[in-house]
Amino acid sequence: MAPPESVVVVGGGICGLAAAYRLAGTGRRVTLLEGSDQLGGLGTFFPSRQGWVERFYHCVMPTDDDLLALLGELGLRETIRWRPTTMGMVVDGRHHPFNSAADLLRFSPLRPLDRVRFGAVSVLLRRLGRHRDLDNTRTEDWLRGLYGDAAWDTLLAPLFGAKFGHAFPDVPALYVWQRLGRERNVATRGYPAGGYKSIIDGLLAALVAAGVTVRTSTPVTALSVAADRVRVELPGGERIEADRAVSTLPLPQLRRLADAPLLARLPSALVAYQGVVNALFFLRRPLAGHYWTPVVRSGTDFDGVVEMSALAGVEPYGGRHLAYAMRYADRDSPLFTEDDATVAARWTDQLCTLYSGLGLSATDVDEVRVFRAPFVEPVYPLGYLDQRPPVTVAGTPLLLATTAHVYPEVTSWNSSVRLANHVAATIGADITGGATSRRTAAAIRADGEPSP
Ligand SMILES: Cc1cc2nc3c(=O)[nH]c(=O)nc-3n(C[C@H](O)[C@H](O)[C@H](O)COP(=O)(O)OP(=O)(O)OC[C@H]3O[C@@H](n4cnc5c(N)ncnc54)[C@H](O)[C@@H]3O)c2cc1C
């Protein structure tokens, strides 16, 4: 009898974990290799008082069907606590609630006529985008035309542009359209009781039970392929050979590991990536209670605040309130390379100034932690649907499952799980399980790529 097919999954973020989970139990020998000492990737956490806190703010949306289906299979779906949340907006240092038609009508950064136009277009936006080639339309061209100059300059460019920096106006409007679809029920968000660690722990337990070998602190140092074999090199001269491999690493990181023949077959780095600098403020008092507050022209380095305890409560944080302040930035930028203590001190001052009207002062700040990640948001070029690399690397047994593949979906745990389902199905895993199987089947076009 032929030995079972072996598969190596590189990267233990949600995409690698979900792919390994899908491949487990199919009779294949699956090995998952994670370079850091923790599973979870961008969703990882650090010990804080009695519990664990995510380095980067994360929440679940009610539209996250594929993630919710996976959680259902793990017996974790009911652990998601759903809460109505609100949004604020700070423009030129002034705070505005931004949730209802009444809020919009009072929104002084826009003139009254622009407020009405903003509301009307927002209601119709998803419909206005249908049947348009938004993948080849610059975001600025589409939104400036619909909303007008004032709304674009004052609100939309800062709001959506925060993630992409100066490249934002050139990002395809399809991304924005898709994002609005994910967030259409903006008021309700979910957070797992036990935090994101409970999801990672659940996945790990399921993998171990299914016989998957999971290795942390095992960075892949080199990758090479022959027609029907993959060779993975590990520290200390260790080598693993397998029939197939799935790489979940951002493409620039994978290219650094590939030998020359593989490099020639890999997609060239089509997308640039934005990183993120992210500070956590453990506070003795709440801020304004809004889950998300974009900050525009207000003298801060960060351009948004997520008040996590408005969603998760204060219990996960030892009774303290938790606010994340974030700035998406290039990994070579001065901010990204600045030391943690300097960022923490300056951003604390800025946060206290920003919320001084609510009485926030330095004595309310109990603890500050700074985390950064170099590869977070792919900056998609126009026409990316046709340039998006296939998940299969032609002529090799290597598959790619990266955040550059989820477009036009928003990068999220949901889109990573969806992609993992697709890649596992491409290898031959039988994806069963309610919404997942239906969505995955629908997502796979005749050419075997996820549909937009
Ligand atoms: C600030 C911020 C906020 C976010 N908010 C949300 C949110 O609210 N909701 C949501 O759903 N998503 C959110 N996301 C997005 C989400 O975290 C990502 O889309 C998702 O985690 C990507 O998963 P991944 O497995 O593709 O990549 P990653 O999580 O990046 O995983 C890649 C893994 O590969 C490992 N690795 C790297 N090099 C090697 C190597 N040589 N060998 C072995 N392993 C290696 C890394 O250590 C990492 O664990 C947010 C992200 C950030 C940064």
UniProtKB/TrEMBL annotation:
Entry superkingdom: Bacteria
Domain Amine oxidase: 14-392
Pfam families noted in UniProt: Amino_oxidase (PF01593)
Signal peptide region: none
GO molecular function, one term: oxidoreductase activity
NCBIfam families in the cross-refs: PRK07233.1 (NF005560)
Protein name in the entry: Oxidoreductase
Organism in which the protein naturally occurs: Actinophytocola xinjiangensis
